Amino acid sequence: MIFGKKKKEIPFLYELKESLVTDTEMEYLECIENILPEGYLVLPQANLAAFITRTDQARYRGELFRNIDFIVTDLDYCPVFLIEINDQTHLAQDRRERDRKVADICEEAGIPLITFWTSYGVQPDYIERRIRRWHLFLQRGFTTFFRRRSGEAATLPQLCMAPMTVRRCGC
Description:
Layout: H1 23-35, E1 40-47, E2 67-74, E3 79-86, H2 93-109, E4 113-117, H3 124-139, E5 146-147, E6 153-154
Parallel strand pairs: 3-4
Antiparallel strand pairs: 1-2, 2-3, 5-6
């Protein structure tokens, strides 16, 4: 009681999730981890602001407070590429706008973004082809795929030059 008034009970509004990833994301994660060569890490639910910064010193960075399903890094945690897993909710207009903004930010920052659609299911051969494509481009020295709006080239982090040894997953 405070000053003769009963303290109002406030219900808890938050609870801990059981996992950082959904069951579907876990299927993709297991496949991706089995496809990547040694020397890479796959981290779930990465916030853009954790690895992309604005160059104009603006105080407001709200557009960077969006999560990507997975970020692939080297063993020094240097970002290599990003992966989004899109389900049917990404067809809604607001989600399409969000996805376009994320893609634009990633392109301008010079980090590849690979998108997989859940409607196609987890297809290891397709996932492997998409990931190998980026590995091959970077291995051959094509490190300036993106151009910043200023027109200058954005350099992608170099992937390990070791050949990809694929460990087959059970997906």
